[in-house]
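Before a colleague's protein record goes any further, I have to sign it off. My question to you is simply how this chain folds and whether the tokens agree. I do not need a full report, just your reasoning and any doubts. This is what I was given:
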Amino acid sequence: MFANPLQKPTTKGKSFQDREAPHQYAISDYGYGKDAVKILHVKRDGPVHSIKEFEVGTHLKLYSKKDYFHGDNSDIVATDSQKNTVYLLAKKHGIENPENFALLLARHFMQKYAHVEEVHIHVEEYPWQRVSAEETGCQEGNGNCNYTNINNRARHNHAFIFTPTEIRYCDVVLRRTDPKQTVISGIRGLRVLKTTQSSFVNFVNDEFRSLPDQYDRIFSTVVDCSWEYSNTDKVLFCKSWNIVKNIIIRQFAGDPNVGTSSPSVQHTLYLTEKEVLDTLPEVSVISMTMPNKHYFNFDTKPFQAVVPGENNEVFIPVDKPHGTIYAQLARKDIASHL
């Protein structure tokens, strides 16, 4: 999935007249590319191996639309050639992180092909984590290993475990007419849940309302979050990504022993976005979506002969329908690109 830039390029003074159009219609948007290019890169430092597995999308927009209007393919960089480029640049330069690899690809297409007006690269990283050597249960010499308990202690040289807690992704957009390079980082599918310290009260009370005030409820959501950098010259992308993830979890969960109160999903979302902008000055705008994943209390009142008393232990997971809460927070001093 290709994310739209959070900061929109200005269109002031730009004409949308399509002089190539052979009739009264104009192509208002266009482009082409290769999606879902899967790649695994293994970095071998002696006995220690590191892996990066990505799924890459490459989209190009050409100055000319003669391929659309006249069936003239002479300017088209075939999508198969784009796919080959992903593998060849990975071989030549290696892979460090999604953002740097996306920038490498985007700059290659802009420098190699003068007739390309815009490049959009999307990268998703598969969440592999190095197996913990200490927690495998291996004892020297006996070969008896238990691989079910993994954490971040001494880690295995060349074995990995798939840990799909969330998906890391990025989008890079380069335009030949715009000196600003758009770099978006993101987290998708981060599912969290807490069993208390969430409320929802004092909302609109009219003839359409059936939901009672909820002073203490289960709060669960699947966080989607993306943020755009105003400048990437000195950005450490992995460090910044981990900082954002930690802020999301901390604002949701709070102190491990005390927790934190959430009067609404909206308030938790806003506090998260605000802390990201406070902490990372290189981030100019951040967007989050937090849909409710409901857990409704099972009503045991009709079954008092079976289970007397109140029920606060058994809940019914309900994923549809669900509420969706979202917001985008930007610095007020962002120049011209919003």
